Write the structure tokens for this entry.
Amino acid sequence: MRSNERAATARSPFVSGRARLNGRVIMLAALVALACWAVATTPGFLTIENLRAILASVGFVGLVACGMTLIMINGNIFSLSLGTVLAVSGMVYVTFLEHGLLLAIAAATATGGGLSAIQGWLIGFMRANPIVVTLATAGLLSGIATGLTGGVTLTPPAGVAGYEWLSRNYAGVPFAVFILLASVILAQWWLSRAVMGRTTFLVGSSYSAAVAAGLPVLRSTVTVFGLAGVTAAVAGILLASFNDNANISMGGTYNYDAIAAAVVGGTAVAGGRGSVVKTLGGALFISTVSDLLLLRGHGTGAQILVKGLIVLVFVLVAARERSAP
Amino acid sequence: MRRPWARARIKPNVTAAMLAPYVVLLVAVVFLVVPAMTGSAQLSVGNWFNIGQRVAFLALPAIGLAATMVAGEFDLSVPGSYLVGSVIAVKYGANQPLFWLLLSVVALAAAGAATGAVVSRFRVNSVCVTLGTYLAMSGAVYLISGDKSLSFNNYDIGLTLTQPVVGVLAVNVLIVASVVSALGVVMRWTRWGPQTRAVGSDRRSSRTVGIQPTLTLVSVFALSAALSGLAGALQGYALASAQPSTSTQLLGLAATCALIGGVSISGGVGTVLGVTCGVIALASIEEVLTRAQIDESRAATITGAVLLAVAIASAPELRHRTKQIVTSLRPDRQTPTREVQQ
């Protein structure tokens, strides 16, 4: 496994150090310029309340982005169903709350992990297209969830308590942020230290080489999808606790936000390269930009438009790095 | 200069995959027609009209997406182009509908061409680039519409477009049918069709035989955006309304039609006729569900299940894996390793 480990951590020989540096310098310069401009021109940006609001939004997006990064590193492009998995898990959590908090959390994470792992199995076992499979699953799950609930918003049964601590702030920081940090540390440790984590990089770098080398490709794909489902489910649990309800539209734009965070964090969509810690930076960047636009009075449209442009710019920067001599 | 791809006549091998769209269409029509023939359900003119309207809504985005799939790419921005087309048409097209329709189609074609150029020039995954353009377009739609549903005052256009002129076929269906027929002719009888298939099959080899993949990719992405925009504008005029959204439902439906229509997700395979059959089949299935009074959520579940089924059916290793499973289940199976151990 030693040579595999080295291969996993090795950088592509086609990327020159200068090109990589240029890309990073551009991104860093963009961040610094954005921060300066924001501080100078946006009233209320540098306040404790606003920073807390940014952290709160990072907590949910970051968890989904954490799982999305694993899927992308494994070479499965990305998932378009994690937002729906988040919503379904949140709904399962709210439904099971009357049987106790622990059971509700277990049921929701098992649902999220299981639903996502099944998609991973279809993709890994049959080499089905990840975009089409996840798109279909999102539609299927939405239909089933809407059919079962009648399309209504689920609320915890009256008298059920004991879950409020999941949505509280501790030392001024939302609980979701602590969970996110723990998830990022665990995921990064898994990617860099665990055998299956390193296999994830190798499968993403070259699927055919991984198969030829006898690596557990299917197990790796099912594992990353399962873990992504679990992180989405945890985000669903926290979001449902925060909102005190859950519905199928709760997934919102989490898929796109998570993909944007991973792309900004430098995760290669073709697989084989990426870092959960950098994705956290990407999520922070995306949330800061969204917050900034909100403070400056721009609505949903401007936020989505800017996210799209950010994805385009970072994809092109990454492509330029890759194609540099 | 000799161009082997231009003169090559390849005798097609009729395979199950090639027949699939026609079989699915036949099954869908049988489900639609048989209950009416046996008297268990009525099949009215309204049912055929509804199928026509669904085809008018879906055919152009499905063919646009299919074109990118045949070229070995995937256009996630199909719903974005559709929304841009519909919102621009509804917001500005009350007095000059044709002008605004053409303007939105041309603008979207230019955006699509730029996407194709970027994909080809930087050799970057088209899914990522089109995700970015989809988000940018969705955001632009929210900005143009002011984050609210738009309505259209010129109801005459909508009434004209949905007016049946040939039997149950309305004007918008005939417009879509004309565009689809023209595309079918272009794909079948010009070099563009074989070139697109060649680029989707093997990009490096296609370059070797004199095809320019960049031009092909620019053209397919421009076509995809223009067709989706045209469908959006026609639908906006027909319904006299448009609203911003980030839903990918249209993408799912278009992908289902393309895959039912025999388009290979790995590129190089697909015809306009096959995708059209896929669209008519899906429209018929939806009409069967509507006639059976199945509610919207169940219909969405069934559509999602159909897409999942076609995604699995089009998986490259399905046959190999099925054989593996069948072999492992056979009672007389003898594994050499076990024999050695015994």
Remarks:
- Chain B touches chain A through 56 residues (CB under 8 Å).
- The radius of gyration of chain B is 22 Å.
- Strands of chain B lie at 150-151, 164-166, 169-170, 241-242.
- Residues 336-342 of chain B have pLDDT under 50 and may be disordered.
